[in-house]
Amino acid sequence: MNSTHHSLDYVRKDLPVNFKKIGLILSVVGLILVIAAYYSDPVRSAFNNLVFLMLLTSIGLGAMFLVAIEYIGGAVWSTPFRRIAEFLAAVLILVPIAAIPVYLNLHDLYHWTHTDVVAADKILSSKSPYLNESFMLIRIALFMAIWLIFYKIITGNSKKQDESKDQNLTTKNIKISAIFMPFFALTITFAAIDWMMSLEPHWFSTIYGVYYFSGTVLAGLAAVTFLAVYLNEKGLLVKGLKSDNYYSLGALLFAFTNFWAYIAFSQYMLIWYANLPEETFWYLARWGGNWKFVTLGLLVVHFIVPYFGLLSQPSKMDPKRLKFMSLWILFAHLYDIYWLVMPTFSKESFVFGWIEAGFLSLAVGLILLIFNYKASRENVVAIGDPKLIRGINFRL
Amino acid sequence: MSEKVLYALTGLFETPDQIIDAAEKTSDGGYKKYDVNTPYPLHGMNQAMKLPPSKLGYAALVFGLSGTVSALALMYWMAVIDYAHVIGGKPYFPLPAFVPVMFEVTVLSAAIATVFTMLFVVFKFPNNSHPLHDTEYMKSVSRDKYGICILAEDEKFDENGTLKFLEELGATNITHQYFTEDSYATWWSVLDKKFAGILAVTAIATSLVVYIGLNKVLYMQPFSWMMEQEKLNPQKGSVLFADGFSMRNPVQGTIARGDLPYEYAVDPEGASKLVNPLPITEANLQLGKVKYDIYCSPCHGFMGEGDSRLRGQFPNPPSLHSEKVRDWTDGRIYHVIAMGQNVMPSYSSQLSRNEKWATILYVRALQRSLNAKESDLQ
Amino acid sequence: MSTVDYSQELSVVEGRPSLRELDDLISKPLESKPDKKFFIAISFTGLMLLTGITALGASFIYGTGLWGNNNPVGWGFPIVNFVFWVGIGHAGTLISAILFLFRQKWRTGIARFAEGMTIFAVITAAMFPLIHTGRPWLPLYLAPYPNQHSIWPNFISPLLWDVFAVSTYFIVSLIFWYVGLIPDLAVLRDKAGTKVKKTIYSIFSLGWRFSNRHWQHYEMMYLILAGFATPLVLSVHTIVSYDFAVSIMPGWHATIFPPYFVAGAVFSGFAMVQNVLIFIRKIFNYEHIITLKVLENMNKIILLTGSLVGYAYAMEFFIAWYSGVQAEQFTFINRAFGPYAWAYWIMISCNVISPQLFWFKKIRTSIPIMFVLGVLVNVGMWFERFVITVTSLSRDYLPSSWAYYTPTITDFGILIGSFGLFFTLLLIFTKTLPVISIAEVKAVVDGAQPTHKDH
């Protein structure tokens, strides 16, 4: 029986070599496959590129949201893990790069970019003040700028605190995080509408932004959870972290799994019940051919498995279970994005081949590399944060 | 009064740290039947007392899931099996629409079951006759003291040794707690005069309220307004007409427009003489088919073989292909349609004269389809 | 910049009162005779209740023609009031369940009171669908029991889901509340002066004896109940929103309705709780338990949910335009600039604009201003339901059947009566039961928990 920690026990270490090695291999393999893919099937690659872009955005923005919400809510349990979320938010830097090929292939992806089609379609032409290429470009550039600016400021303050231990930096970040929230809500909504909802430009759903938000938070949270457990097991985090510290991560994963199901069900239920053809076609497209199985699979993968996997109290703290479930949830989120995007590309049946694998490999590789890069230059724990000790001592 | 029996030794502590320490030492000391009483739950007490984790979660899970399943089964039976009908163009079994009720029933049954399991099964409440009740000890621990209570029935308990043990722990106000055998409630406690009296009064009062509510109050205004309507019910006299009837007979010697009285109501053989006035045209046969399918087929079947979906639920409707029916004249069939026969009612209010004749044409066509004459082939 | 020390946990209860002082303070209103102010207050609310009873009585005798409901606006005040009151109820469960799961300790002092408000609000709310049926004495037809008509209720109707949702919510809230009261009733039992009181408290405290073998299960049960109450509270207003959103009525059929209604419900509920607590803490001297910090936190949640509601308004407007559906576009233009524009702009200014003042700490911590803003929120949220219900119905697909809805004096009488019922129940509650959870507050006083040890 040892008593409360009053001092920090943190030694900076590099991440295991494998971390970087795997990241590098996956990136290189992915990059080669992606380039080959663009040569062999540019349309399919463009759609995959969109999935890839959305995955990176989800993880980066989800992690960013977690950082901000910790400041606003004044949570202490998450302080020992906050730096992990900050590193993952650095994925946002990749988002503009991942978006470039999407812009070069706008015509393959978005029906509404064809002026002749829009001119012939009354509904689409009524939407053209919003859905046009130049406005979309401006919007998205603005969104990315907002994300990166807030990322820079918030993580910058947090990093400064490692040295200065200045409590005012926490106060400052609380305020900035609060300001970030309305921007976050609006940008994520319109990014989701622009990038994914407008793939079917006739379709509309007011809840779409919230739906994507629920997935984003899950993705960010799952990535943080996996890395938190992994790094703590390798002894790279501060000493004294126990399974109690994981509890809230598990609980939040569980909560957001339910939240996602709630939002997804609400959207489905309202469209199914009202049965208006201008809305139902979107679901019918996901029920045609063997997409039916993908849709049913989504229910299992994204809700049933994580729900029962994290239902009991001990399972929310068990490192093994958390590592498995967080990877599973990341996969579920990818599955979800795929389900949102790909039916527009392939109406008859779902497709999976080396092109999809290439983009996935590149995404995972890049995330690992950027995390490794950040970890090699900064502390993996926010050692200057005044809440850290309370966070380490957090017990249920 | 029966004899006093020692129930337990109790001691009090002042601070949470002391009681945690005391609980730890007591459980380490091998005591099994002891309890710690504190005004609020203390963090770390479960570990100190080495209590196994609470299993209430299982009760919640089991009752919750059985709630889900029974709600689904209930709705399925009601909306799909017992009274299936289409509502709003939805299928008989609209799973998404059942989800809200399934969810609510799950939560309801889980919540009630968890609390009831805890209170009545685990705690065995209500229990106001517990030996510790109304003692100074209880009055202290309910407010600001932290108490420990070692039961006399514990194997390690020995009055002096345990007393000393408590003193060593630093407990104050060490007290012997007694109980009397008859203070325990038993099943025959329900015969207690007071209890039985209250029970009887409650029962009578409830019955009265329910009786008066359902049988008297709901028959008063305004609740009764749906029953008291400005219409004439059977066996009720009209105040409008002198003879007390609500309906008038037609004026003698008149008939309604478009109506032809049927002369052979009691004379089926007379009706045989009637001749079908309709020519056999496609339009007439088509009309006959439409009417036949609507009014005749539910019993006689689409082919007239008496094989409809009602077979087995009524006296079986006869086949229209029997020799008897085939030999009937059109007029004889007309009589059956107009007046009914056996369980078959009259179809005069559903079918006009022409429609009846058209139906007969169609019946003839059906009969010929099964019993064609050789001449038909030519 | 700031003087907050983030490395220290803030005290939930200020001034470190002794446990005995807390008992006495919280049970004082129950042990003293009500004073003059109480009688003035309760006669005022009683008068309001009487107004409502009169209006309702008249409706029963002369029929619902006394109301302003017309064709096409069949859902007038009764449904507006129903949604409003169900919404008020949501804050209680949010505080007692969701904030509990998030381990927000500041909820401790206000949870009991907010739960009580939930129950009274749901009672008030449940009255409206019943009277809207026109024959409120036949509610049993809503239940699936083998009846003389030999038909079953329509499980496909969201109105029936409401029956299940609201009754489940009421029962679960009541259980939650009662279970929380058991230890407090046991304290009162041991403190009781008269024999009658002691008997009553003994019966209802069921023989609770503060055993740690019980506390362990009790805490587990509380966690489980909170775990069930959280999705339940979301589901209730979600299902209320389904009443509107499953239809194809323009302005009602929006997929964002479920989360938007929940946010709105929490928004108005918190405003109501905040308003009432301002009085309670003053009158009963609970300022060190229901601290200014608690009120500030509540105002933050009002700001958050108010912004969420604003987001939903914006999304509705944007998607109505984006959808290209003419009827949808018309509905929203009509809301903002049509005959009910006044109601719409009251809603926008009270729900979206004025709560934004809570961004400033000065305003968040000023009691008079927060009170006014809280009242405005409830005005705005009432008008939100009015706007949703009435504007869509009064201008639906068929222009020949458009009609303006004007509530009658009876409608207002019933509305006033609903406030009377709610506040009368609340006043009775403050004098009969501890409005702050004694056991829970004791557990979060500084020094009440053992110094931490790792095992």
Brief write-up:
The complex is a heterotrimer of chains A (396), B (378) and C (455). Chain A has 396 residues and is an all-alpha fold.
List keywords for this structure.
heterotrimer; B: 378 residues; alpha+beta; Cytochrome Bc1 Complex, Chain D, domain 2; 3 domains; four-stranded antiparallel sheet; C: 455 residues; mainly alpha; Formate dehydrogenase/DMSO reductase fold
Describe the structure.
The complex is a heterotrimer of chains A (396), B (378) and C (455). Chain A has one domain (17-107, 147-392). In chain A, 73% of the residues lie in helices and 0% in strands. Chain A contains 16 helices and no strands. Chain B contains twelve helices and four strands; from the N terminus they run βαβααααβαβαααααα. In chain B, helix 3 packs antiparallel against helix 4, helix 9 (282-300) crosses helix 12 (353-370) and helix 11 packs across helix 12. Chain C is mainly α. In chain C, helix 9 (292-323) runs parallel beside helix 13. At the A-B interface, helix 11 of A face helix 4 of B.
Secondary-structure map with pairings?
The complex is a heterotrimer of chains A (396), B (378) and C (455).
Chain A: H1 17-40, H2 42-73, H3 82-89, H4 94-104, H5 106-109, H6 115-120, H7 122-127, H8 133-164, H9 167-195, H10 208-233, H11 243-274, H12 277-285, H13 291-309, H14 319-341, H15 354-377, H16 388-392
Helix pairs in contact in A: 1-2, 1-15, 2-3, 2-4, 2-9, 2-10, 2-14, 2-15, 8-9, 9-10, 10-11, 10-14, 11-13, 13-14
Chain B: E1 4-13, H1 16-28, E2 34-37, H2 45-49, H3 56-82, H4 95-122, H5 136-141, E3 146-151, H6 159-169, E4 172-180, H7 193-215, H8 268-271, H9 282-300, H10 323-327, H11 330-339, H12 353-370
Antiparallel strand pairs in B: 1-3, 1-4, 2-3
Helix pairs in contact in B: 3-4, 9-12, 11-12
Chain C: H1 19-31, H2 36-62, H3 77-101, H4 108-132, H5 158-191, H6 195-205, H7 212-245, H8 257-283, H9 292-323, H10 326-337, H11 341-353, H12 361-364, H13 367-394, H14 409-432, H15 438-444
Helix pairs in contact in C: 2-14, 3-4, 3-7, 3-8, 3-13, 4-5, 4-14, 5-6, 5-7, 7-8, 8-9, 8-13, 9-10, 9-13, 10-11, 11-13
